[in-house]
């Protein structure tokens, strides 16, 4: 009986160490019926958003990689053209870099650096 409990605990430890890999593989596969059963752009968009959300919240992949999932999957599923995705990413990056100096000055003022 103790051997069985030790074997179960060993299996549990192995699964716990591989949890991120399991999430990365099983989440897209388990959600794949959504765009297959309903082949609309809305269903494909929902699939991409759910996969991205699970990756983001669970941190199964680095956050930067999770943020790039829509950039690759939207054109793959035909939700958006790659030029539209890259244009929105470029707009986000430019607004991020424009606001950065103002944020740094404000942080210096607040933290009295």
From TrEMBL:
Entries under InterPro entries matching the protein: SLC13A/DASS
Domain of life according to the entry: Eukaryota
Compartment(s) of residence: Membrane
Keywords recorded for this protein, A-Z: Ion transport, Membrane, Sodium, Sodium transport, Transmembrane, Transmembrane helix, Transport
UniProt GO cellular component terms: plasma membrane
Pfam family name, one: Na_sulph_symp
Molecular function GO terms recorded: solute:sodium symporter activity
Keyword presence, Heme: no
Family: Belongs to the SLC13A/DASS transporter (TC 2.A.47) family. NADC subfamily.
UniProt protein name: Solute carrier family 13 member 4
Taxonomic classification: Eukaryota, Metazoa, Chordata, Craniata, Vertebrata
